[in-house]
Specification:
Blueprint lengths: L1 E6 L4 E5 L3 H20 L8 H20 L3 H10 L1 H11 L4 H29 L6 H4 L6 H18 L8 H8 L2 H11 L1 H14 L1 H6 L1 H20 L4 H20 L4 H32 L15 H14 L6 H14 L3 H26 L6 H4 L6 H19 L2 H17 L11
Helix pairs in contact: 1-2, 1-9, 1-14, 2-3, 2-4, 3-5, 4-5, 5-7, 5-8, 7-10, 8-13, 9-14, 10-13, 10-20, 12-13, 12-17, 13-14, 13-16, 13-17, 14-15, 14-16, 14-19, 14-20, 15-17, 15-19, 16-17, 16-19
């Protein structure tokens, strides 16, 4: 833990600390950042130093979010992550990069402003402190809790992103460079889920329980509806972007089940999705670097020219579909088990992701990888370089290791999840009579 006075007049401290949940997300962030730097080593030709600097700054800011124990410090880190990602999309992105960067920035910035109002209110009722630990002990009437919950909800729902505030994500992914898409999907989306766990549940537990049905409904819409939307996509990056929204619906579903199994499943799903989404976007990037196209229709028969790549891509496609033995199965299975204890119908809707996920992922894989060589551009493809093999190989090991032996990660989470459930117990902080 690190505690240093920062803004004395408002009792704001540079207060950092980690628990099991933070530890896993920080490790995910650090591994992903290193892989993104290696992946872009020979691909980025312009402003290389600024490109690498943007990712390193972004990585540090996201680690700050995962460590912050002061609410204002959390907000500063949370908002500051927008700046390097805005630059990454706007400078090194595709033809419509300016539109995508501005849309990304405005959506996420505007969504967070209400949370700042909520934090200032909590500062006023907590005796003049921005410490999250002090916020956890503040008693609030249910009306105030609901307003604070909705303020946090807007900020974190946009970040996850939840339906219907998800429309910025496909545009951002399509226009972002491969490294930007990797970090956006693997790490930045997790800031929303982390915010629910670190702020919403412990600070306003009664409102979280009362409004859980609303969040669960939005999560199930994301799982089912967005899964169907992914089925009709012609662009591989857009398909994987919609897949991310659907899979992150499992995260918010698991969080608002309020059980140890559900919370651990949600956190493991965040870590697993980080590895899988990073791998999927990097696979698309490998093909794009060679053919400069992301359209499924432009490919076919890639396995004939890139057999090693096709094998690794198959592993990641299966993991994205939730195949047992891969990391994609672990978190989803725990969330489904936790949901089954609450409602059969919630479970039935949530489990459709195993069907839709397999449908859109494997259908894309079939059209891109199998069959006869589609055209002369595919005919000229070459298999993975040593650099690309290293990056995808590390992610393959991570996906398999987590899928075959998830126990160490679960053990790291037990104490953190128990503390979150203790803080989120209904009635613990309710101020009666107001």
């Amino acid at each position: 833990m690190e505690l240093t006075p920062w803004i004395d007049s408002f009792h704001v401290n540079y207060h950092l600390g980690i628990d099991g949940m933070s530890l896993l997300l920080i490790l995910l962030n650090c591994i992903t950042t290193v892989l993104v730097v290696i992946a872009g080593w020979e691909v980025i030709k312009e402003r290389v130093s600024q490109y690498m600097a943007a990712f390193l700054i972004l990585s540090g800011l996201m680690n700050g979010v995962f460590c912050a124990l002061d609410a204002l410090l959390f907000y500063v880190f949370f908002e500051a992550t927008l700046i390097p990602m805005f630059i990454i999309i706007g400078v090194w992105g595709g033809p419509n990069r300016v539109y995508a960067a501005v849309k990304f920035f405005l959506y996420t910035l505007m969504g967070s402003l209400l949370s700042l109002v909520a934090l200032i209110y909590l500062f006023s009722v907590s005796g003049g402190s921005f410490s999250l630990l002090d916020f956890y002990d503040v008693q609030l009437p249910i009306g105030a809790q609901k307003l604070i919950f909705m303020a946090f909800m807007v900020a974190f729902a946009v970040k996850v992103p939840m339906w219907p505030v998800h429309t910025w994500l496909p545009d951002a992914h399509v226009e972002a460079p491969t490294g930007g898409s990797v970090v956006l999907a693997a790490i930045m989306l997790k800031l929303g889920g982390y915010g629910f766990l670190r702020l919403s549940l412990p600070i306003v537990p009664d409102a979280s329980h009362e409004l859980a049905g609303f969040v669960i409904a939005l999560s199930l819409i994301a799982v089912v509806y967005i899964g169907l939307v992914a089925l009709v996509q012609a662009d591989m990056k857009k398909l994987i972007a919609y897949s991310s929204i659907s899979h992150m619906g499992f995260v918010t579903l698991g969080i608002f089940i309020f059980s140890a199994q559900g919370l651990e499943g949600a956190i493991l799903q965040m870590v697993s999705h980080g590895f899988i989404s990073a791998a999927m976007f990097l696979c698309v990037g490998v093909m794009y670097d060679r053919m400069h196209s992301r359209l499924i229709a432009d490919y076919g028969g890639v396995a004939n020219k890139m057999p090693v790549f096709a094998a690794l891509f198959m592993l990641f496609a299966m993991a994205n579909s939730g195949l047992p033995g891969t990391s994609g199965f672990v978190g989803e299975w725990l969330v489904i088990l936790a949901t089954m204890k609450v409602s059969f119908w919630y479970t039935a809707l949530a489990a459709t992701t195993l069907i839709f996920g397999a449908a859109y992922t494997l259908w894309m894989y079939k059209r891109v990888i199998f069959g006869a060589v589609a055209n002369r551009h595919v005919e000229e493809l070459t298999d993975l370089s040593r650099r690309e093999m290293l990056v995808l190989g590390v992610l393959a090991v991570a996906v398999l290791a987590m899928g075959l032996w998830p126990a160490p990660l679960g053990e790291v989470l037990h104490e953190s999840v128990g503390e979150i459930l203790r803080l989120a117990a209904p009635g613990r902080k309710l101020l009666i009579g107001l």
